[in-house]
Amino acid sequence: MNLTNIRKLTVVINSIILFLVFGLAGFFFLCGAEFLVWFSIPTALVYIFGYYLIKKDRLDIYIRLVYSWLTLYMCVTTVFLGYQMGFHLYCLSMVPIIFYTEYMAQSLGKKKINALAVSAVIVLFYMAATGYSAYSGPIYEVDSSIAMVFWLFNSAIVFYFLIVYARIMLKLVGDSEKKLTDIAHTDRLTGLYNRHFMMTRLEDSVNGKVDEDRSVAMADIDNFKGINDSYGHNAGDYVLKTISDLMRNICKDAEISRWGGEEFLLFFEGDSAAKALDRMEELRRKISEYDFTFEGVKITVTITIGIACYEKGLSVDEWIKEADERLYFGKNNGKNRVVSIPVRDLSGK
Fold first, then answer.
1. CATH number assigned to the domain with residue range 195-347, chosen from the 4 options 1.20.1250.20, 3.30.70.270, 3.40.50.10710, 3.30.70.100
2. The pLDDT of residue 112 is above 80
3. Could you tell me if 324 and 345 are in contact, meaning their C-beta atoms sit under 8 angstroms apart?
């Protein structure tokens, strides 16, 4: 969740709380709780001022102000009306939310909030307010049926905030795990899968029970060292990223990884050998025809590809070795070609 979304969520929460303050002020008036009616005025002003803090991106001050006043509000209403009204239950939502707030402050590089210390203070105030109310009784007596209605109402509000923030935290955890997984499985320069991911993917495929056509294609950029030496490593990176984009566009039915350096491995599952070969020929041709221009300089780029179908009984390493051997046969015999025939057949050995 970015800062803009956090700001929008904070505005919504602030508006809900301000609405509740006005509603409760009306209830206090009907109950004859004069002090609480007057106490509602500075409470409302706190949340009105909160809009200004949110607008000025001072969420750190907003959180401290709101938490301090909400704790005070909880204590005052519990002491004056009794714990049977359920105002003390707001502590249940305040504690997890402050830990969420600390996490978001750390994620966004904002001033951190000591969630543990704040939680301890909230618990102390909670114990003091409920203890006093249980020992001395409420200052304003309220009908028990009304107290029950308010206890249910306050419980519903507390559970609403707990559910909302629990869902937000769950989404944040899921997004963080996905981001970490993507980082672990992705090559940073090209955005393609990395070698580790592809090895795991191929092993899962080989060990699976599904009997279907599968092929791997090992592709290598021809004379890549010469490109780096002649035009610089930034040009080399440009070529790698451009070829990666072409692979993604042309080979949408394949899983693609950067195998290492200027090598790529493509995995076709469920496609016939002929279809995989056609796709590799198309890729080779499109790359040879593509206008690679870096900083106004045209660069001639071609690739050589070795492709191998999976045969029952082969290990992943043996399967990849088949494609690798065909790749290097193509590299040593003209380059800019796709080799799909076993090297022993091509060489006559």
1. 3.30.70.270
2. no
3. no
